[in-house]
Every structure is written in C-alpha cells, then in structure tokens.
Amino acid sequence: MKQIKAEILCVGTEILLGDIVNTNAAYLAKELAALGIDVYHQSVVGDNPARLKSELQQAFTRADLVVMTGGLGPTYDDLTKETVAAYFGEKMRLDEESARRIAAFFAAKGVEATPNNLKQAEMPEHAVIFKNDAGTAPGLALEKNGKTAILLPGPPFEMQTMFERSVRPWLAQRADHVLVSHTIHLHGIGESAVEYRLRERMEKGKNPTIAPYAKQGEVQLRITAAAPTREAADALIRPEVDAICAKLREYVYGVDIGNQETALVELLCQKHAKIATAESCTGGLLSKRITDVAGASVVFEFGVCTYANRMKEQVLGVSKHDLDTLGAVSPEVAAQMASGARRVAGAEVGIGITGIAGPGGGTPEKPVGLIYIAVDSPNYTHVEKYLPGHSGLSRDALRYAATQQALRLAIYAAKAL
C-alpha cells in the first residue's frame, strides 16, 4: 500500500496569539487518518507571506500533501492562495463561477459585494476549485511534481462543510486503502497496568496496531487497521478486539461507546432499570451528564442536589445522628444518600456523592478533595473513598473526577442487575 505523508499547516495570527483555539487541526488530523493518510507534523504560521512561504517549503520537504486552513479572506493580509500559487509557479486568474457564487451570496443577504470580495474568486490557473456552501471563500487543490496542496477556509464550519462535501471524496479517489479504528473503553484500571498486561500483544501488533490513551478516570485502547476496504479492515480488527475484551473483561465498559454516561444509559435500557442520584459536592453534575445522553428520560426520573444537612435528612432520610456525629462527608452519609435516592424514586440503582470540592472547607482530618461515592442496588452496594493523590486540582476537576467514579460504580451495579 502506498502511504501518503501529510502535514497540516494552519494560517492565522489570531491562532498564534491564542485568540482562537485551533480546532481545525484536530478535525483534519482525524479525517485524514480515516482516509489512510499519515499526518506526521502540524504547524501554525501567522499572516505573513515570507514566513508562510518558509513554512510551506519546509512542509514539502517532509510531506507529499499539505493541507492548509485560513488566509483565503478578502483582506490585504489574506495571502495563502498567492503564496501557494507562487510556490507552484502558477498565475492567478479570476474564476467566473466563484465570482458569481460570491455575488449571489451577498445578493441573498440584500448586500452588494465590495470589490475586495472578488479577491476570493482569484484562483491559481490550474487549481481544482472546491465551492464553499457555507461562506464566500472557495477552497482549492494544486498538484505538481508529486506534491499536493489543499487550501481550505479558516472558519471551522466552512472548513468542515467543504471537507465533507468536496475534499474527502476528492482525496478518497486517490487513496488505495483506508484506516479504520475501533476503541475499547476501560475503567477501574490505569494506563500502565493496561500496558503491562498487553505489552507483548502491543509490541507484536503491526496491522492492526494497539495504542492506549489515558483520559480522566478511564483508559481507551484504539485498535487500528489498514486495508483496501472498511470491511477488510474490520475483519482484521474484530479478533483483536474480542481477545482484548476477554482478557480485560472486568474493566471493559464498552466498545466505540463514547463515554461512561452513554454506556450506563444503554445498559440500564437493556435491563429495563432506572437510576436515581443524590449529590452534594458535585452540584448536579452527575445528573447532567446522565441526562445529556439522548433517551436518558427512560432510565432517569429523579435527581436531587442536597447541600444542606437539613435537606439530606428531610428528603433522603439520612440519619440526623450520623450527620451530627460523623459529618456530611462520611461513608455512612454517602451510603444513606444513595439508598434514600433509590427509595424515593423507586429505582433499581441509587448513587450518593458527598465531599469537599474546595477551595475552602477542608480540615486535616477531611482535606479538600475528599469525596465519598456510594451505590445502592439489589445485587451491588458499595461505598468508595476518593482522594486524589496530588493537590492542586480545581473545584471543577474534582467534581468531574467524582462523577467519573460514580458512573463507574453505577455501571457495575447495572451489570449486576
């Protein structure tokens, strides 16, 4: 299989200054990989023709294909097309179809196009032109001496629309294989432990390959294969996925599932079961994450945020004696919050979370970051203490980490139903 080496070059001073986040590079890297195109470098350069020329020359020493975004606008500093045309020895000309589309775009808004808008219709003489269905700046591709440049607009919606409708089909015609990936999602195990268990398989894997990725509260294993068709790649991947899932069965919560909350909702739907939540320090974040999943209303009817001890006692039935003697941040209270939520809702699974998210409120006995997470269900009841091994986590990070652990326990409980 012929491997195409690509580089992504994003143009825009606003990216270098941090005024906008460069989401274009992440999107393009993923899309190019799906087409079987290897991306080895990504670069960003400001709106400066000399530096852009230098970056373009450098990129083509490493890559066969350079995909560029930005610098296709109507202003004087939008010089990406002109710089690329000069590199390929191309003359610029007015593309009549692009000019008509630009004029129609403004006419539809009841505005007359200014002369500099037609600058966007100036194209290298031998370019393949990609129409812009979401804006005014057309994209283009230039090929010469085994080198290809693809120019796309900078605004993400315009760029993605053009890529999906025009560029992806154009590139697919030139590719002789595809790359397909499937992701195994694991929780309750760290990246190093996963690597230790799978090292020999990972080292031997050439096609498909196995790559671990650590995320907050979970690990993902991406299994990737190259083949002439998606069906052939899937056939290579399937035995590997089955073998890994069998080896790490107790930690796998899904394949290509997206996230824990999606896995939980799907599992509860399969079990015809419901979940209820009682949260203190997470402020309703667990309920939000569950209800972010489409169809969650089938399995989620009740969630309560009880910061005050009085509400824990009156709504959830938490023991006043335990609140007074043990404190709200205790395993006993977390367990009663979980069982109380389950009882009030008539659900099969109840989750309780209580802790100190900070930045204040901690003591030597109960420091900031201490969180208790409880699950209550017919076949699986458990309280887990969460205390990060390093300080400095923000309030938001602690809350998110707590909900990650809560979702993991909820999945365990749902599996046991």
Explain this structure to me?
The structure is a single chain. By secondary structure, the chain is of the alpha/beta class. Helix content is 41%, strand content 24%. The model has no long low-confidence stretch (mean pLDDT 93).
Give the spatial strand order of the biggest sheet: 2-1-3-8-7-6
Q: Describe the main β-sheet briefly.
A: 6 strands, mixed
User: Which range best describes the helical content: under 10%, 10-25%, 25-40%, 40-55%, 55-70% or over 70%?
Assistant: 40-55%
End-to-end distance: 48 Å
Uncertain ranges: none
Give the amount of beta strand, in percent: 15-25%
Structural class: alpha/beta
Rg over C-alpha atoms, rounded to the nearest angstrom: 27 Å
Q: What's the helix count?
A: 14
- Rough outline: elongated
Global mean pLDDT: 93
The count of DSSP E runs of length 2 or more, i.e. the number of strands, is: 17
Q: What labels would you give this structure?
A:
five-stranded mixed β-sheet, 41% helix, 17 strands, six-stranded mixed β-sheet, alpha/beta, 417 residues, 14 helices
Topology, pairings included?
Elements: E1 4-11, H1 13-16, H2 23-34, E2 37-45, H3 49-62, E3 65-69, H4 80-88, E4 92-94, H5 96-108, E5 122-124, E6 128-130, E7 139-144, E8 147-152, H6 156-172, E9 178-186, H7 191-204, E10 209-215, E11 218-227, H8 230-247, E12 252-255, H9 260-271, E13 275-279, H10 285-291, E14 300-305, H11 309-316, H12 320-325, H13 331-345, E15 349-355, E16 371-376, E17 382-386, H14 395-416
Parallel strand pairs: 1-2, 1-3, 3-8, 13-14, 13-15
Antiparallel strand pairs: 4-5, 6-7, 7-8, 9-11, 9-12, 10-11, 15-16, 16-17
Helix pairs in contact: 2-6, 3-4, 9-14
